[in-house]
Amino acid sequence: MFSKIVSISVLALLLLTTACASVPTETTPTEPVTLTVLAAASLTEAFGEIGALFESQNPGVTLSFSFAGSQALAEQLSQGAQADVFASASKKYMTAAIDANRVNSDDSQGFVTNRLVVIYPIGNPAGITQLSDLANPGLKIDLADKAVPVGQYTLDFLDKAVADPNFGEEFKAAVLANVVSYEENVKAVLSKISLGEAGAGVVYVSDITVDAASKVGRLDIPDELNTIATYPIAPVSDSAHADLARAFVALVLSPEGQAILAKYNFIPVNQN
């Protein structure tokens, strides 16, 4: 009798297991994810293209970019803004994010470099033909504020020029006396020069996109007076999507990402 009861129990258990296995289990679809990237304004076009590539490689993921001056983005991070990736135009502001405990120092990597160039409205109404012309009386100059990386790099250029006998000790003061406006990011400088609101400005060479090239002319600044700006990138330490944040950084550093950056006149890290 006991063996029959055990046999019946085992049979019942087997039937129950089979029945449960035959019931299809529901799978929860992957929830859409928005990855927030804080990036220097000069990266607008290049990161837009890299972002589209990343989205195509990661279905269900949408990139949300916030482009602004690096100093403004670092300040947002220090105040607790939620983000997943930070890309700065200056090591200074990446250090600020690290000091605010929003980025781990070991995660920060230089991914590209950039350089300064003088621009003027197409047609060159002020007749600028050489860097010394920036000191010409009456010239209206538009620059980025010194709090913005490109603004500080511009001041560094002027400091180097003062030490060059081809420019003279008064060059910096004369140039700054011509400044009619200081902007909060480099794209604002490009916009005002494109519109002819000033006769000259200083931006990154990467800002002269195909579209911008039809609106502004350029005057190169030689290496000895220029600043080769290193751009660092890092995932934000408390990102809610850490794996995707690291994947985006990896794409930026990949041959594909570097080729896109080079297309927009950035200098890839493997060429530094």
Question: How would you describe this protein?
Answer:
- The strands form 2 sheets. The chain has a 6-stranded mixed sheet with strand order 2-1-3-10-4-11. Strands 7-6-8-5-9 form a 5-stranded mixed sheet, with helices on both faces.
- The chain is elongated, with a radius of gyration of 27 Å.
- The model is unreliable at 1-29 (pLDDT under 50).
- The protein is of the alpha/beta class and 272 residues long.
- It has 10 helices and 11 strands.
- Helix 2 (44-57) runs antiparallel to helix 10 (255-263).
- The chain has 2 domains: 33-113 and 230-271, D-Maltodextrin-Binding Protein, domain 2; 116-220, D-Maltodextrin-Binding Protein, domain 2 (3-Layer(aba) Sandwich), CATH 3.40.190.
- 40% of the residues are buried.
- Describe the biggest sheet? 6 strands, mixed
In terms of DSSP E residues, the strand content is 15-25%
Strands side by side in the biggest sheet: 2-1-3-10-4-11
The average pLDDT value, as a whole number, equals 90
Structural class per helix/strand content? Answer: alpha/beta
- The poorly predicted ranges are 1-29
Run of helices and strands: HEHEHEHEEEHHEHEHEEHHE
Separation of the first and last Cα atoms: 86 Å
Concise overview:
This protein has 272 residues and is of the alpha/beta class.
What labels would you give this structure?
6-stranded mixed β-sheet; 10 helices; 5-stranded mixed β-sheet; 272 residues; D-Maltodextrin-Binding Protein, domain 2; alpha/beta; 11 strands
